[in-house]
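A protein record in our archive is deliberately plain, so that people and models can read it alike. The record that follows is passed on verbatim for readers who wish to inspect the format.
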Amino acid sequence: MARMSAERRRDAIVDAALSVARRKGLAATTVRDVAAEMGSSSGLIHHYFETMDDVVAAAFERIAGQDLVETEEQLRDAGDPTGIVRAFLSSYAPVGEDWAFQLWLDAWAEAARRPALREVSSRLNLAWAAMLERAIRAGVASGDFRSPDPAGAAWRILSVVDGLALQVVAHQTIIDRQDMLRWAALAAERELDLVPGTLAVSSESRAAAEARQADASRGGAGPPPRARSTHRLASDAHP
């Protein structure tokens, strides 16, 4: 049998870490757990990753980085700036027991104590904000939006949707996905000086997004097939 390359071995370790994190949460995943998942020793993990924090950061970056790329691809087909912002808000909203969003919650909570995870979280948050800012700047240039501060507008909109998404997942009986979508759209409309209802998500779009997220949630013990965006929580990267 061919010997596994270092890159493939690192990928296998990250796969195992994600499988454990789905069951136990990112914060509770240990070197021993990952080794047991792989049927190997803790020494193997430490051979390829200096610390468990590095494993956790790599696992989070795998999911969150893929999420970012897929959302960028999704938004390219959304049309004008209004359509892009509408699609962005729709892609943000979690559905039911969304384990990938739980991963973001864990990463957000752990970032203050784990420098490697904090670096990844901050870098990805900046990328999410930049993606929304580009859409806002395009809308200002076309006359669709009015905003004297597109960068600040992007962060304020992200802060609202982050908080609402957290409430949907952490307190499922208080705020539901439809509340989140409606309130997020209203906040963005006020920020961008739009007529109320401009960013409302149609029932067809909501149904399609929910179907994609439901499919992703059934993706097995490892990282789910990602045909949609999960979620980004604002971190200390906010200016």
